[in-house]
Design goal:
By secondary structure, the protein is α+β, with helices and mostly antiparallel strands. The protein is about 50% helix and about 15% strand.
Length: about 180
C-alpha cells in the first residue's frame, strides 16, 4: 500500500474492538459492582427507626450515549430530610452533607398532626405538644442532618475508581494482544 501506514487496518480493528468492549456490558458490570459498594455502605450508615429508609436504598446502572452511569438512590420522600436535616436544627447541624448541595432551611418551627407521626417517634424527640379538638399536634424546629448517601459515595471513591480503572486496563491488555 503506497503512502499508507503498515498495519493500520489491524490497528483500527483493535481500536474498534477496544472501543466496543470498553463501553459494553463489561464496563456496565464494573460500574454496577462499584455502585453496589456505595449502596452497601449507605445501608450501613442509614439511621434506622423502622428500617423502611434503609431497605429503600437501590441502585441503577444505565448506558447514556458513551457513558455508563451508576446511581445509588432512595425513592422515599423523607430521605433528603434525613440526609440534609431540616429547620434551624438542620441548618446548624449539617456536617457531612455534600459540599455541592446548599439546602435552604425553614427558620420557623412547624406543627405535625398525630396522624402524620406515631407517638413513640414524637416522644423520642421530646417535642412540645398540644391537644386540640382536632387531635394532638407536635411542634418541631427540625432535625440534624444524618448523612448516609454522600458519605457512602465519598468513602468508596478510591475503591470505585480503582475497580473501574482495573477493568479498563484489563480490556486494553486484551485488545493489545497480537
Amino acid at each position: 500500500m503506497a503512502g499508507g501506514v503498515k498495519g493500520l487496518d489491524k490497528l483500527m480493528k483493535k481500536y474498534n474492538s477496544l472501543s466496543s468492549s470498553v463501553t459494553g456490558p463489561g464496563l456496565e458490570r464494573a460500574v454496577g459492582a462499584s455502585i453496589k459498594m456505595v449502596q452497601g455502605e449507605a445501608k450501613l450508615l442509614c439511621p434506622v427507626n423502622d428500617g423502611e429508609l434503609r431497605q429503600s436504598i437501590k441502585t441503577a446502572v444505565e448506558l447514556q450515549e458513551d457513558k455508563v452511569i451508576g446511581t445509588a438512590y432512595t425513592n422515599k420522600k423523607h430521605g433528603p430530610f434525613v440526609e440534609f436535616g431540616t429547620g434551624p436544627v438542620g441548618e446548624v447541624e449539617h456536617a457531612g452533607i455534600s459540599p455541592a448541595v446548599t439546602p435552604t432551611y425553614s427558620q420557623s418551627p412547624w406543627w405535625i398532626h398525630e396522624s402524620q407521626i406515631d407517638k413513640k417517634t414524637a416522644e423520642k424527640y421530646h417535642w412540645f405538644s398540644i391537644d386540640t379538638a382536632q387531635g394532638r399536634f407536635y411542634q418541631t424546629s427540625g432535625q440534624a442532618a444524618q448523612p448516609f448517601m454522600y458519605p457512602a459515595l465519598k468513602n468508596n471513591e478510591d475503591r470505585e475508581t480503582r475497580n473501574i480503572s482495573n477493568y479498563l486496563k484489563k480490556e486494553i491488555r486484551k485488545a493489545a494482544k497480537p
